[in-house]
Specification:
With 224 residues, the chain is α+β, with helices and mostly antiparallel strands. It contains 6 helices and 7 strands; from the N terminus they run H-H-H-H-E-E-E-E-H-E-E-E-H. The strands form 3 sheets. It has a 3-stranded antiparallel beta sheet with strand order 5-6-7, with helices on both faces. Strands 1-2 form a two-stranded antiparallel sheet. The chain has a two-stranded antiparallel ribbon with strand order 3-4.
């Protein structure tokens, strides 16, 4: 099953899914997660994670899974002020996820400020199933180390490239996404025993054990 194939990292399962879906459809879908099409492989190696992407790009894509399916973008500076009166020179107005807003709504209010609503790019039912599969990565698969967090709302996925040149762990609660990447500036193997679960897993766990105290989590909503 797809579920078992993903949580045990069976690459042939993923390749067959891509073959069935079609490369063009897959590329179109990945663009919804903020990936630039010209930076993605245009072949079956796409299913193996062969794209060269930054930790921020990966975390941003996982944010769509965490926030209920809304296409958001990272932003860095919330507000720039000037002078003793703290006159606002520039203020961020990022697109935000709004799971409770009516379909078709374009604006909401957060902390008294109007915010633009991000477009929904994934349907809630499909998203719920995918998050359930990612939870199985923690319960039964390569991410079992995260069980040490003793939380049922943490999901994620490990990753290890050919020759262990890069290792990953990216995961989230319902309120925060975190990603770990380990590798050399000039790519070379990290060693025969290097895996995402063993190297990045503990980093993710240590970070999330503190971050969850501030940002919280809670069960993912079950769609109708």
């Amino acid at each position: 099953r797809l579920r078992v194939g993903l949580y045990t990292s069976r690459n042939l399962v993923t390749i067959r899914v891509l073959q069935s879906l079609g490369l063009e459809n897959a590329l179109n879908f990945l663009e919804r997660f903020g990936f630039a099409r010209d930076r993605l492989p245009h072949g079956l190696s796409l299913a193996l994670g062969s794209a060269s992407l930054t930790p921020l790009e990966i975390a941003n894509a996982y944010a769509v899974l965490a926030n209920g399916g809304f296409q958001v973008s990272p932003w860095y500076i919330q507000k720039v002020t000037q002078g003793s009166q703290n006159t606002v020179v520039e203020q961020a107005n990022p697109l935000v996820a709004c799971r409770d807003c009516a379909p078709g709504a374009t604006q909401t209010v957060i902390d008294g400020e109007p915010r633009r609503i991000a477009p929904r790019v994934v349907e809630p039912d499909a998203l719920y199933i995918l998050r359930s599969i990612l939870r199985d990565v923690i319960e039964h698969g390569t991410g079992r180390g995260a069980l040490s967090l003793d939380r049922s709302d943490i999901v994620g996925k490990t990753g290890t490239t050919n020759d262990a040149k890069d290792v990953w762990f990216v995961g989230f609660s319902s309120n925060i996404v975190a990603g770990c990447y380990i590798g050399f500036d000039n790519p070379r193997s990290l060693g025969r025993r290097a895996y995402g679960a063993g190297m990045c897993g503990p980093v993710f766990q240590r970070f999330m054990s503190e971050a969850i105290k501030k940002y919280g989590g809670g069960p993912f909503e079950v769609p109708p």
